[in-house]
Design brief:
The protein has helices spanning about 15-20, 40-45, 55-70, 75-80, 120-135, 145-155, 185-190, 265-270, 290-305, 330-335, 340-350, 355-370, 400-405, 435-445, 460-470; strands spanning about 5, 5-10, 10-15, 35, 80, 85-90, 90-95, 100, 140, 160, 180, 195-200, 200-205, 220, 230-235, 240-245, 280-285, 310-315, 370-375, 385-390, 415-420, 450-455. The protein is α/β, with parallel strands linked by helices and about 475 residues long. It folds into 2 domains: about 5-160, 5'-nuclease (Rossmann fold), CATH 3.40.50; about 175-470, 3-Layer(aba) Sandwich (Rossmann fold). A 6-stranded mixed sheet has the order 5-8-4-3-9-10. A 6-stranded mixed sheet has the order 11-14-15-16-13-12, with no helix packed on it. A hairpin with a 2-residue loop joins strand 1 and strand 2. Helix 9 crosses helix 11 and helix 13 packs across helix 14 (about 435-445).
């Protein structure tokens, strides 16, 4: 078997949809070699036109291929082009394999069970021919197409999905934002403890074995007779500064008239109301209060404290069922049908009887005047200053879209991402490749971000039972 640096090399035959999904996939195979069938280049050529994300990815993949092939002779191309290692878009790739293009017709005999001259069958035939020509090398077909992988297994070709875009191997490994402390926590962490109060807030500086496992703004829970609900504020050289969390479950301490109904909601309000936390992500089941908490905290800091100028709310327009077609009106009017969650939560936040119907209508108009609804399609190039930005249904965003949106935040802005990774409506994302999973994992170690996974639904007993039983 062929080896490189003592490691057995493999030959990966790349399907078109892999490059459509991730143009930088060429540089993710480390010391292994890549083979591009000619039909893949033909499919890339047909898919390069348009303004969709797939078309943009195809054009970027074509540019990568052009850079690799420019100035190379026919002989060099036939022998394989060395894939460069280095930085690309802020990421470092350690590729050291070769890229092979199909430069001749390969004698492929497909089984009679695969009739027709389709691109998928052509790729299968190419993989079969390579497998016969290079018996000492493990040939693997890489494709995002499940049916192609099934057909490959039927004809005896080893096939794999493209895993490099997955943030985690299992969604159960996703950072929850809450750590439950053991019963002997104070016995093991109170040796060098120092406590003080500052502007009505209580802080503890401590050290111990668990400190190295914590993340900034992670929420800590110590159950028992003397419970502790705290938030990690700073981590430095084996020490941690934690702050006692405000108790928003008490009727006298509300956020725009809203109380926390469980422990996770209380932590969420602590993070949402903290001006030092610029990015907050809330993941939870349907009815766990994500939108209500984010909106209540935004209204409180926009209208009462005037910390932000206005609230900007947006979401991905991915329908659950069939699309109802084009919508009339301005940008905000077109987005209104997608913002039913906003209207429903405004009714909850504006349930006062003072002033009767006229008073409620006037208050609703005031609230709506400070809440702007924006479409994701027009976010490129914008900068939001001193805004409270809510990205609803963020589980339907790709990592690239998420980066585009979060980088719109200017000085003084706060971004809140809401979503339920169990309810992904777009067919191109999974729980491990969603942009929401991506930002939760990438932001967990930043000093100015926080995350909470809301575990309990609080909408109604009917909704709670439906979430569990259906």
């Amino acid at each position: 078997m062929t080896t490189r640096n003592g490691v057995p090399t493999r030959l990966f035959v790349i399907d078109t949809n892999v490059l459509m999904h991730d143009p930088a996939a060429l540089f993710h195979f480390k010391e292994h070699d890549i083979f591009l069938p000619m039909v893949v280049l033909e499919e890339l050529d047909r898919a390069k036109k348009g303004v969709s994300e797939v078309a943009r990815n195809v054009r970027q993949a074509n540019r990568f291929l052009d850079e690799l092939i420019t100035g190379r002779s026919d002989e060099e191309i036939a022998q394989g082009l060395r894939l460069p290692a280095g930085n690309l878009n802020g990421q470092r790739f350690a590729s050291s394999g070769k890229l092979f293009f199909q430069t001749r017709v390969l004698p492929a005999t497909l089984p009679d069970a695969l009739p027709g001259n389709t691109p998928d069958n052509t790729i299968l035939g190419t993989a079969l021919a390579l497998q016969r020509e290079r018996p000492g090398i493990s040939v693997t077909l890489v494709s995002k197409d499940i049916n192609l992988r099934i057909k490959a297994a039927v004809v005896g070709i080893h096939a794999e999905d493209y895993y490099s875009d997955q943030v985690l191997e299992d969604v159960d490994l996703l950072f929850s934002g809450v750590a439950e402390l053991p019963e002997d926590f104070w016995d093991t962490h109170s040796k060098d403890i120092h406590s003080w109060q500052e502007q009505g807030r209580t802080f503890y500086k401590l050290s111990g074995p668990l400190v190295t496992k914590w993340h900034p703004n992670q929420c800590l829970v110590l159950p028992g007779e003397h419970p502790l609900n705290a938030i990690v504020r700073t981590l430095e050289q084996g020490f941690a500064v934690i702050e006692l969390a405000s108790d928003y479950t008490q009727p006298r301490q509300t956020v725009w008239g809203i109380n926390a109904l469980n422990r996770e909601q209380n932590f969420a309000l602590n993070l949402l109301m903290d001006p030092d936390v610029d990015f907050v992500s809330l993941v939870g089941v349907a009815g766990s209060g994500k939108t209500l908490l984010a909106l209540a905290a935004g209204l409180s800091q926009t209208l009462d404290e005037q910390h932000y100028r206005e609230i900007i709310m947006t979401r991905v327009t991915v329908p659950v069922g069939e699309d109802i077609g084009f919508l009339p009106g301005t940008e905000e009017e077109k987005m209104t049908p997608w913002m039913g969650a906003l209207m429903d939560n405004l009714e909850v936040l504006n349930r006062t009887d003072e002033g009767g119907d006229w008073g409620r209508a006037a208050t609703t108009d005031l609230l709506r005047s400070r809440i702007k609804i924006r479409s994701l399609n027009f976010m490129r190039g914008r900068t939001f200053l001193n805004r409270y930005i809510i990205l609803d249904e963020a589980q339907n965003l790709t990592p690239k879209q998420m980066k585009t949106l979060i980088t719109r935040a200017g000085p003084g802005s706060k971004v809140v991402c809401l979503g339920n990774i169990a309810q992904i409506d777009t067919p191109y994302l999974t729980e491990t490749t969603s942009g929401l999973t991506y930002v939760v994992d990438r932001f967990k170690s930043w000093d100015h971000s926080g995350h909470i996974t809301l575990l309990r639904g609080e909408r109604s007993r009917l909704a709670d039972f439906a979430s569990e039983a259906l």
